[in-house]
Amino acid sequence: MSEASMVQILPSGSPQASLDYSKFTTVYGCFPSLRQIRAFAAAAQLKSILKASVDLNVSQSAVTQAIAKLEADLDTNLFERRNKGSYLTETGKILQEHTQRFLDHLENTLKEFMGKPASSDTASLEALVRRITKSQITALIAIREAGSFTQAARYAGVSQPSIHRSARSLEAQLKTKLFYDTAHGAMVNDRGAHLADQLHLAIREFEWAFEKIEAEKQQVRGRILVGGLLLAGSGFLASAISQFATAYPEVNVDVACGSYDVLLEKLRAGSLDFIVGLLKSPAPADDVVEEVLVRDPYVIAARKDHPLAGKEKIAREELAAYDWVLPGPTAARRVHFERIFAGSSSTPRANVETHSLTTILLLLVDSDRMTILTESQLMLDRKLGHNLTSLNYPMTEPHGLIGVTTRKNWMLTHNQKIFRNFLRKTKMDNDLQRFRSDN
């Protein structure tokens, strides 16, 4: 991975711009080389290409070429060149704001990682910050995301020796172990994982700068990173994404599906913008916030020809006579299941646990098992073939809360604000009312 390389962003209006941007943003987003970043930051601060070259101890032509490459890649002028110096344009000011945030985040991350107090050797820390390369950062993130050196090479689209070389050089530079060996190859250890997460959040500053620069040019481009819970809110999320993608076709929406714990970790690390699905209520960590979007009633679900289907009044003991399919112990519907049978002398067998809605639907269709779902999930089943029904048993907790989880004190980009508004505008009340009247 060349230190001088950068994600290619084609000029505005190019029919291939969205396609090429999408190919790279699924991994790192817009991330210039650190040589370009440092040249731009120095020239912006000193208002002079010459002074920047002296400050960086490189030739004036090297600074000029780095900035010219950056301007070409972003398809915008970052400086106005005058006799007395170089001054930032409006788009240059946008990039400078996010560049400074990146550099501050990078320095603070390395300071924390190395365990250096604020009063420690500033010169050695600055030297370390200047030695870090793009290839080292992207290699560590790729190994963290992909799980191994081999998979990281495929993930990043480079050779395995290149990933190995960059990762090990970072480890040597930091003088700290970042990886441990397993039977399936080397993986990041806890310190390496935390460092990767912080660096991933730092480099997203350039992605957000790119979005703002495109907006300045009256273009809406970029990407939204959404975490979709495996068990809940998929219909709601699909509806919001469909409307958003129709209105803003040049913005890519990348959806990562997984369990809540996995998605929460990614959200806190900055590799997701939103988590959409059933809320924990209250939020499980003090650095994230939850917003309720839709109330989605809980039901006990079983196949349409289940022995209890259509029965007007069902006793708790009758529910206990059948096997259940449940999510993990921390899931909200697992808590509701336990409340249903609290104090009961008979507890049903629940020997299948899964967060996969597809697996649950298939298990229920082929047996007399039952589970707790929401009405929106039964609506999804209807679209897929209408194999399930709700049983006439009153729920102790009548509503699930579908909503969006984000980082606390997070400054949304233009695109993220638009997407959040689409989430807020997406309603299921009428659909759920029609669903109830049809049942």
Compile the SSE list and pairings:
Layout lengths: L16 H9 L8 H13 L2 H8 L3 H15 L4 E4 L2 E4 L1 H25 L7 H10 L2 H13 L2 H8 L3 H15 L4 E4 L2 E4 L1 H27 L5 E8 L4 H14 L3 E8 L1 H10 L4 E5 L9 E16 L12 H4 L5 E2 L5 H9 L11 E2 L3 H9 L5 E4 H9 L4 E3 L8 E9 L6 H12 L3 H10 L1
Parallel strand pairs: 5-6, 5-7, 9-10
Antiparallel strand pairs: 1-2, 3-4, 7-13, 8-11, 8-12, 8-13
Helix pairs in contact: 2-3, 2-4, 2-5, 3-4, 5-6, 5-10, 7-8, 7-9, 7-10, 8-9, 11-17
How would you describe this protein?
This protein has helices spanning 17-25, 34-46, 49-56, 60-74, 90-114, 122-131, 134-146, 149-156, 160-174, 190-216, 234-247, 260-269, 316-319, 332-340, 357-365, 375-383, 414-425, 429-438, and strands at 79-82, 85-88, 179-182, 185-188, 222-229, 251-258, 274-278, 288-303, 325-326, 352-353, 371-374, 388-390, 399-407. It is an alpha/beta fold and 439 residues long. It folds into three domains: 17-198, Winged helix-like DNA-binding domain superfamily/Winged helix DNA-binding domain (Arc Repressor Mutant, subunit A), CATH 1.10.10.10; 222-290 and 404-429, Periplasmic binding protein-like II (D-Maltodextrin-Binding Protein, domain 2, 3-Layer(aba) Sandwich), CATH 3.40.190.10; 294-400, D-Maltodextrin-Binding Protein, domain 2 (3-Layer(aba) Sandwich). The strands form four sheets. Strands 5, 6, 7, 8, 11, 12 and 13 form a seven-stranded mixed β-sheet that branches. Strands 1-2 form a two-stranded antiparallel ribbon. It has a two-stranded antiparallel sheet with strand order 3-4. Strand 3 and strand 4 form a beta hairpin. Helix 5 (90-114) packs across helix 6, helix 7 (134-146) packs across helix 9 (160-174) and helix 11 packs across helix 17 (414-425).
